[in-house]
Design a protein that fits this description.
Elements lengths: L3 E5 L6 E5 L2 E5 L5 E3 L2 E2 H10 L1 H8 L6 E3 L9 E3 L12 E5 L5 E5 L4 H9 L2 E3 L15 E8 L5 H17 L5 E5 L3 E7 L6 H18 L3 E2 L5 H4 L3 E2 L1
Parallel strand pairs: 14-15
Antiparallel strand pairs: 1-2, 2-3, 4-5, 6-7, 6-10, 8-9, 11-13, 11-15, 12-13
């Protein structure tokens, strides 16, 4: 496992590893999270890809998305850091609008990433801003959701047109999958705009696409009006 020093256990479903000076107990390694893909393979993937993943996660409060029984089992979200979180895992206390104090996990190093993967935290829902300036996002996200009979291919076509439009504005964008058939188009921005301003930017660009492409829908409509269209 890249970046990990392993100490074998007599139980093949668990092992102790050392990651950058932190000792971690990895458990249920033979558990299948996807058909034919085990938790051990998920952990190995995140260890090998950590140099690419960590800059994206660093300094962003994270909501856990746990799949203890794999993607076909029950899954749940958790904002508060679990009681058993190691002391060395960074937390960020944030008081929500209802007054509740939430201790979010911050994933900025390889040991934390491996620890989260061992919890079967398959994906990493994060904030669009960093803790240094929570009120000003440094990412803008366009969420593309196709409604049947529109397909993933239709979402891809809209993403390509959106990319070209963003380029004309001097903005770079990157795409990633979202859910079963959707896409997220991510646009890095300078952290000087409010969330209200970035939402308005997304809304206006969505309306512009809607005027150019009949298959695009820029705002929620009744279900029958969404059929066959890609919602931004």
């Amino acid at each position: 496992m890249s970046g990990c020093t392993a100490k074998q256990s007599t139980d093949t479903s668990e092992r102790w590893v050392e990651v950058e000076g932190r000792r971690l107990k990895l458990t249920r390694l033979e558990k299948q999270l996807w058909p034919g893909i085990t938790k051990a393979e998920l952990i190995k993937y995140y260890a090998e890809m950590s140099d690419f993943i960590l800059p994206y996660l660093r300094s962003r409060p994270m909501t856990l998305h746990l799949y203890p029984d794999g993607i076909e089992g029950k899954h749940f979200f958790r904002k508060e850091a679990p009681e058993f979180t190691p002391d060395w895992v960074r937390r960020f206390p944030y008081r929500a609008e209802d007054g509740k104090l939430i201790n979010y996990i911050l994933c900025g190093d390889r040991p934390t990433l491996i620890w989260l993967a061992n919890l079967a935290n398959i994906e990493f829902p994060i904030t669009l801003s960093r803790i240094e300036d929570l009120e000003h996002p440094d990412l803008v996200v366009f969420d593309l959701d196709p409604f049947q009979p529109a397909t993933f291919r239709d979402a891809c076509m809209v993403a390509l047109v959106l990319r070209d439009g963003l380029r004309q504005l001097g903005l770079q964008s990157w795409v990633k999958t979202s859910g079963a058939t959707g896409l997220h188009v991510l646009v890095p921005v300078a952290p000087k705009y409010t969330f209200q301003q970035t939402r308005e930017f997304v809304r206006r660009l969505g309306k512009m696409l809607e005027s150019l492409m009949p298959e695009v829908l820029a705002e929620f409509r009744p279900v029958e009006e969404r059929k066959g269209r890609v919602l931004i």
